[in-house]
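[retry 2/3] FAD:protein FMN transferase: previous attempt timed out, resubmitting with same input.
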Amino acid sequence: MGTRWSVRLVVTAPRKIADVGAGVQGALDGVVAEMSTWEAASDISRFNRAAVGAWQAMPPGFLTVLSTALRIAGESGGAFDPTVGAIVDAWGFGAAGPVASVPDTETTETLCRAGGWGRVECDTLLQRARRTGTLALDFSGIAKGFGADRVAAWLKSQGFRHFLVEVGGELVGEGVKPDGQPWWVDIEMPPGAALPPLRLALHGLSAATSGDYRRWFEADGQRFAHTIDPRSGRPAEGVASVTVLHPECMCADAYATAIAVLGAEEGLRFANRLGLAAHIISRDGGEAMNLAFTAMLD
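[retry 2/3] FAD:protein FMN transferase: success.
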């Protein structure tokens, strides 16, 4: 996934840490094999190469992420959309690599018309999916969160009940530390933000942050961030960082992206409507959080 992972856990019986590490890495390798557009042999790459309209047998994890992504796409009015793969590539943020210049309006409009979450069908009963348009899936806004969830599930399957999982900044906290305290984590602030740090407790809870400072490039005196607004085909503007809390990290991950695209005001209304705990930092330095988020702070 182009990032790092870490796990802190309470061990109540002798265990080889190397074995735990190998198990965690194996869980994440499985996510890459299913959902990385950087891997030509991955399931998502196979899906994107398939003939339009042809059903493709897909693994359960892939379908879980796809069905969740499509649901959140509907909830957000397309602010989050897993069918942005071609647009992401056009802006140089995908597996195709950097671009020499920003795409023109005609290109982005054409790609937007070709895509759209309504042109993907997901049949979880028969374990298959298909696309009905010349679009490409991209799970960059949800796969890291799912990876953290999968690591947490693997740890539970091995008998661990108290741990903190981190995958590229996405976090899952389960149980408590040996001293009875919850897993306290600090929210990542955008570089240069003149805001006091915030600390929250993760106890059976996940946190995901979407920030426009993680990947970006400059062209013609303008700064373009990697978070794409699927509705316009252009990088989202106005929001520097969004953190969302949710029982499932993949949902927190996707909702954070959706709110970053919607903007501070509309994004906060969206979070309140769905009962999401959200914290938003605007590019102009403004900060907003709802009551659901405030309740989780130290």
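[retry 2/3] FAD:protein FMN transferase: The chain has a mean pLDDT of 91.
[retry 2/3] clearing retry counter.
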